[in-house]
Amino acid sequence: MKGKILIFIFISFFFNTLAQIPLRPDAFPPIDEPSVPSKALLMASNVDQMAQWNRYPTHSTYLSMMQEWADNHPELCRLDSIGTSVQGRKILCLAIGTHLGDSNYPEFFYSSTIHGDELTGMVMMLRLIDTLLNSYGRNPRLTHLVDSLQIYINPLANPDGTYHGGDNTVATSWRYNADGIDLNRNYPDPFSSTTPTPTPENTAMIDYVSHHRFRLSANLHGGAEVLNYPWDSFLSSVQAHPKSDWWQEVCTRFMDTLRCYDTTHFANVTSSGYIAGGDWYVIGGGRQDYMNYYHDCLEMTMEISTTKRLPSHLLPSYWHFLAGPLITYIEELLSLLPHDSNDIAEVPDGVLWEAYPNPTSGHITLLGVTPGDAVSVLDLSGATLLHSTSSTLDLSHLAPGIYLVRYGRRAMKVIKTGAPH
Ligand SMILES: [Zn+2]
Prior knowledge:
CATH architecture of the largest domain: 3-Layer(aba) Sandwich
Bound molecules: zinc ion
Order of helices and strands: HEEHEEEHHEHHEEHEHHEHEEEEEEE
CATH topology of the largest domain: Aminopeptidase
Shape: globular
């Protein structure tokens, strides 16, 4: 009897402990999710059939929707081709704004379905595009966004994965690109020596983001419901993101908005609805850390539906609770702007401007700075951390992370090390 009690206690302890470990379905490749019956994944074979937003577009419907928006709203948007997938499908991005191309208007980026079978985000992004374009001039809040920002939306980052079973079905979508590569484990990783395998999808995306100055972005996934902020490469106890406090505030605002519409979703990983990525589980080669580290872009990963292939009739209910927070997240960029200061001198054109060593563990020397001119160091939110009129700066008191050194209208990324290897 005593033995049975001990076994019972052990089993209870084991399962209680297990229950406390947050599970991320994303973490278990390459097992395919048990198929959702294909009849639950209704397809729209023309644009009109998308009217109720309760179907998934066939590939040609998707292309038509993106093209029609560009054709119907040339004053509000532009259709970009980011590149082409292994099987030759276009990777598209719709740029929305009344000041596209003007660098005075900050750039926001949403991208979805880099894992081809995580379908919900794709339709949410299409509906977001439709809402932004058709609300312009009618809804002051959304009009203000379109007038103030450049909003880039890439609904489908991995078209070959989504249309793995052919252009007319998403029932056999899978996670990978056509060569079987997990694109979200295949970005340059600042904290790992593993070299990514070049893929046309990621090479094109890297080129695209390198030609922009995205300040804030999110990559939408499925398989869980939680906001996952950087870093993915570390436990937060090992290396917290320099803007962890800011991320938690942003996630809280997102969740506060979501809770206005829904009280049950976004609770299956943490009760707060958000988590530092590495505390959930550590990955390498993800796009989130790549964007944060190499592009000074504050990107988080949004896991928006526990079911990857969400039955299509549920898509409108997900939009009901996600539309508000997705828009709230774009609005974060309005308050993220580092306000231009005109109190310091311009760097004359043609002058080589450099900081070395970079990365640095503490002291950097600036080349190309006129002695006596003011230089400032900012964090990625644009908050000024120090002013100096010297061409050498001491950053040793700053936490490891990425900072901007600003001189005149130029800003340069400086990496403060201290991160474990
Ligand atoms: Zn995913």
